[in-house]
Amino acid sequence: MKLSNANIINLEDYRVKGKDGTIAKVFTGRDRGEDVRKASKIDEIEKSYDEVFIIIPDNIYSINPSFFEELFVNVVLKLGREKFLNKFKFDSVGNYNYERPLSEAIIRILRKKTAIG
Questions:
Q1: What are the residue ranges in the chain where pLDDT is below 70?
Q2: CB neighbours (10 Å) of residue 75?
């Protein structure tokens, strides 16, 4: 099922595809998180909608906190933890347990904010 709603970010659309046709089963690193943040226009979507849906595709092995940290840095800094978690709804199609890396990413983002100012 292809979702096309403007307030849905389906991470399937941002998987790295190999030359041999394989697709990545991990989302890792700050650089990749930044790439997806920019390509998905998550900051603009957040401004325009009361809810934002994040779809985590099937057969994902790992999503590192560093990926989530860079993907969500601006919206977490803007909204804070509770408002972010209320506004952003996650659906893990393959039942990937994203809560722990997401929570770690949020803690890191907010810790940096506290350290800065």
A1: 1-4, 113-117
A2: 21
